[in-house]
Amino acid sequence: MPRTESEAKSSGFTMISGCGHANFLGKRYMKNNDPAVILIYDVNGYIAGIQAGLPTTLSNGYPPANLKNHPLVQDGDKFYMTAYFVSPDSICTHGRTAGQFSSQGTGTDLYIQNSTDPMASIRIPHQESAIGSTAWVKGHCFPAMGVHYWYAATLDMSCDNFFPVFLLYNGGVLNAFGWAFQADLSSSRFEHPTTSSFAAFMNPVPQCLYNAGKLSTLHIYLNGNPQTDLICN
């Protein structure tokens, strides 16, 4: 994915909103009218986050009421799931300098927007050792992905409470994250794991997922080469 605004433009991405949006930060870019991947840039044009958009008219009624605007924020005819790679308070103010982008790369931290207020986004622990004091539940390690964590996942939970974000750690460090939506989304960017594969990356597997219909997932890697860098030990 292009990590600067100029690269995004040359790759065919077009801006759908700029700084000043009521619910989201940064300059948001989409390609080919596909909301599965919306890239977010700071005021200086450096990568600052990513979004996925879902139609508000899905046939199964997803998302359930308690996930609307928490974390799936409605704007127009879509619900958006948003993550930021730098401190939210910097994105539309001073942004990053060329030197900071060169030394920091894609970002400094991972923040998940969990309400209509992007400034209240949740910072994800960079070290796996710090995740134990949170509600994230350790799943399994999957080759070329990492050790999965799912928020407050239990065997007998209601899928109305299934948080659509997972984290991935490798070597004790956050290396990726992703979305997991209970809907059959058509973009080619989404994967659709079968129910028989759930136990390979979840522990426990919420039983409701077996009857929830097709799952659409998307992995977002923060390292350079997941196929060779991420090996389960």
TrEMBL record:
It comes from the Eukaryota. This is Uncharacterized protein. It comes from Magallana gigas.
